[in-house]
């Protein structure tokens, strides 16, 4: 995908590997306290038309750490969306205030690609329907690199509701760039309708193969009538018992939010292999790195 301003990040297919490597180096420098940047006087618009905790608050934290003032819009509350203004018009009007960038979370029906060609500020996809969630996949990969040394050669098993997952969609793209393998596991109702993916029908076999095991949120709102959640937990849940099949050196991940007791038990959060909260911490560094790279012309 291209865009008028050419700096928008709507997917990972169009982000060069060299830029991803550079982003990870910038994030390393931020972690090491070696990067000093203050974006005084700049604003960044955070437009969340759909619910979010981690992505929204980590972009806010990233802005605060960089000295960029965040212009926040959350859902319909207190905005002219309440009066019937469209999401597209909202974005065009906020873009007219010339923020340094626009971070947007929205549904599939909004055409972010077309919008990115109409505005001067770069648009960062913060979760776009089922199409993708690039910054989540980037922070996941950064977490894998931190704990396992490199993403190349890793085997990522994604378990659960892949069919409705924008996180999985972004990992399919990022895996091509960073040379890790992706395999899927879950009931057939949860897997992509199209073929071409490596699939394990047995969680035990998948976990034996994996160096990283990632559970996805069971989108209860879509499946509860079709599938017993208790059966799901027994067959595909990240329970202490099921995770005996995963190597001691492997990582356990989840992008959040978690349905505890369905796709992951609460006690698994205490497993030394589990990096769920480290993913969240790294999300700030990656988003800080993205904003820094964008403002300094490196992206
Ligand atoms: N992982 C993720 O996108 O979480 P939020 O929906 O809370 O932002």
List keywords for this structure.
299 residues, alpha/beta, Rossmann fold, 2 domains, 5-stranded parallel beta sheet, 4-stranded parallel beta sheet, 9 strands, globular, binds phosphoric acid mono(formamide)ester
- The CATH architecture of the largest domain is 3-Layer(aba) Sandwich
CATH topology of the largest domain: Rossmann fold
The largest pleated sheet is described as:
5 strands, parallel
CATH class of the largest domain: Alpha Beta
Rounded mean pLDDT is: 94
Distance between the termini: 15 Å
Report the radius of gyration as a whole number of Å.
19 Å
Q: Output the number of helix runs.
A: 10
Structure write-up:
The structure is a single chain. This protein is an alpha/beta fold. It has two domains: 17-134 and 282-295, Rossmann fold; 135-279, Rossmann fold (3-Layer(aba) Sandwich), CATH 3.40.50.1370. 36% of the residues lie in helices and 15% in strands. The chain has a five-stranded parallel sheet with strand order 7-6-5-8-9. Helix 1 (17-31) packs across helix 10 and helix 2 (54-66) packs across helix 10. The two termini are 15 Å apart. The relative contact order is 0.16. The structure holds phosphoric acid mono(formamide)ester. Residues 52-55, 127, 136, 255-257 line the site of phosphoric acid mono(formamide)ester.
A few lines on this structure:
Helices cover 36% and strands 15% of the residues.
Task: Show the helix and strand layout.
Layout: H1 17-31, E1 43-48, H2 54-66, E2 69-74, H3 87-95, E3 101-106, H4 112-116, E4 123-128, H5 134-148, E5 155-159, H6 166-178, E6 181-185, E7 198-200, H7 203-209, E8 212-215, H8 220-223, H9 229-236, E9 251-253, H10 276-295
Parallel strand pairs: 1-2, 1-3, 3-4, 5-6, 5-8, 6-7, 8-9
Helix pairs in contact: 1-10, 2-10, 5-6, 5-10
The protein binds phosphoric acid mono(formamide)ester.
Residues 52-55, 127, 136, 255-257 line the site of phosphoric acid mono(formamide)ester.
């Amino acid at each position: 995908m291209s865009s008028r301003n050419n700096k928008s990040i709507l997917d990972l297919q169009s982000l060069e590997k060299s830029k991803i490597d550079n982003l990870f180096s910038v994030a390393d420098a931020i972690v090491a306290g070696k990067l000093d940047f203050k974006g005084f006087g700049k604003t960044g618009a955070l437009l969340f038309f759909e619910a979010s905790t981690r992505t929204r608050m980590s972009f806010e934290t990233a802005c605060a750490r960089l000295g960029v003032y965040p212009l926040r819009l959350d859902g319909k509350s207190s905005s002219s969306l309440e009066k019937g203004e469209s999401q597209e018009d909202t974005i065009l009007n906020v873009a007219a205030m010339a923020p340094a960038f626009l971070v947007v979370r929205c549904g599939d029906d909004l055409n972010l690609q077309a919008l990115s060609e109409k505005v001067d500020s770069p648009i960062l996809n913060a979760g776009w329907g089922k199409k993708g969630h690039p910054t989540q996949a980037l922070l996941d990969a950064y977490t894998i690199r931190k704990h396992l040394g490199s993403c190349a050669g890793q085997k990522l098993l994604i378990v659960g509701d892949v069919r409705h997952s924008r996180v999985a969609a972004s990992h399919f793209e990022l895996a091509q760039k960073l040379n890790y393998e992706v395999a899927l596991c879950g009931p057939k109702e949860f897997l992509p309708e199209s073929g071409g993916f490596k699939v394990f029908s047995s969680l035990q076999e998948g976990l034996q193969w994996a160096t990283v095991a990632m559970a996805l949120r069971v989108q209860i709102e879509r499946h509860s009538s079709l599938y017993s959640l208790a059966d799901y937990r027994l067959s595909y849940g990240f329970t202490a018992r099921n995770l005996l099949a995963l190597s001691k050196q492997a990582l356990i991940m989840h992008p959040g939010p978690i349905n505890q007791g369905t796709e992951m038990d609460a006690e698994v959060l205490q497993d030394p292999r589990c990096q769920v909260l480290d993913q969240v911490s790294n999300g700030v560094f990656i988003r800080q790195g993205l904003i820094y790279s964008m403002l300094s012309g490196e992206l």
